[in-house]
Structures are given as C-alpha cells and as structure tokens.
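re: ur question from yesterday

yeah so i grabbed the chain u mentioned. its 258 aa long if i counted rite. heres the sequnce exactly as i have it in my notes:
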Amino acid sequence: MHPILNIAIQAAIKGGNNIIQAYDKNTFNYLKNKEILQKEIYKTKNMIINLIKKSYFKHHILFNYNSSKLKKFKNPTWIINLIHGKKNFKKRFPNFCVSITIFVQKKINSSVIYDPLKNELFTAVNGHGAQINGHRMRSSKTYLLKKIFVSAKINYMIFQKNHIFYKILKKIFKKGIIFRSTNLVPLDLAYLANGRIDCIIEYNFKIKNYYSGILHVKETGGIISDYQGGFDYNNKTVIIANNAKVLSLILKKIKSLY
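ran it thru and got these structure tokens back, copy pasting raw so excuse formatting
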C-alpha cells in the first residue's frame, strides 16, 4: 500500500469512529447537539494531527480549505473535512462522511472518503486506480438513457438563478432518467466511480468542493465537461459522467437548449 495513503486511511477511520460517537449521542436539542459536535470535532482534530505528524512532521494540515494557503505551501498538504454533510448529521439523516485529500507539489496525490455508518472506505492514488474497502472500483457500463442514474442538487434558489440548469434537468427528466439528490459531493463522486450512479449535474461548480472525490472519478475513467461539451467552467453548470458515452448521451439531449 502507498505509505501516505496508509496514514490517511488510519486518520479517516479514527476520525469517522469519533464522529460516530457524537452521532450516537445526538438528541433533538440543538444546543446540546452543537456542544457535543464541537467537542468531538476538537478532540478528533488533535488526534488526527498527532497521527499524521508522527509520520510526516513537515506536512501541512488544513481543516478548512483555503486556496491562498495551499498555493504558499511547498511541502505536501492535507485537506481534511471531518463531517461532510453537517446538516444531515444534526438531523440524524444517515448520510455524511469524512474526507482527506493530499496534495503533493500542489497536485492531488491521493484521497480518502470514509462513510463511517456503512463502513465503506473509498481510496484513490494518482496513477494507481481507486478502491472500495480494498477492492478495485469500476464505473457503471450502463449506456441506455432510461437506465442512467443522475445526481443533481435541486432547490428553489437554483431554479431562480440559473434557468439553463432548470431547462437541462427538465429536458433530460422527460427522457426517463432516474434522479437522486443527496447534496453530498464526496459520496456522489465515490458512488459514480463505483458505478452506483452514472452522472452528476452540478450548478455553481467550484473545483475546490470536488477535490476529495475527483481523483476517484479520474482513476476509474470518468470525464468532466461543461454543459456545451467543453471545459469552460465559467458556465457554472458542469456534467461529470462515468464515461464518454454517457456524457455524449446527456449532451445530445440538451443540445437544443443553446
């Protein structure tokens, strides 16, 4: 196993187990939830820092992503999110995860996404593939439009601010595509890499929100595009598909919109 990935896995699992303890203690008293959550996060951060520093003393560790800081660091940098899906966590909706992304020479070297409730560990190393619980991940080979699973963030504000996004969803919905909306980017990307979903359509795309899972998609043959089939992310609406065939099918259906 890649040495740095081994430490990242240990950190993700220990962090996830600590967070689960807070989840189990969670009640419907919001103030109490907040206190429990903050205590567990603080304790977990210190534990993870100590774990990483024992093996990689000179590495930088960030718990809140800051692009300006990343650009300044010359040594490898760890970006850690202890709870992706905090709203789900507080509501006791069982859909959240821990993510760790490691940059070496300012490029993603490896990443880990851990779902502590399902005990599912998604890992990826640049140039060495992606795995789930130690087994190689393979993206879905579904090519029929009516069988494609699409994840999309759907809410009122998006429809109000981006008419193209609304039209895209409306257009492909008519073709029988199955929608899922989890609003949990890291797990969506891991699920796409593992064939559980076939495509992600995202509005207001920001690459930093995708760092934890984009390597998983890349290592299983996934492809990212804007809704016109190019790479201009200023369009804000992007499509991440598990392969070029699925991307082509989606783009073909929305071509008439522009």
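noticed a couple things. The chain has a mean pLDDT of 83. also The chain is about 40% helix and 20% strand.
anyway ttyl
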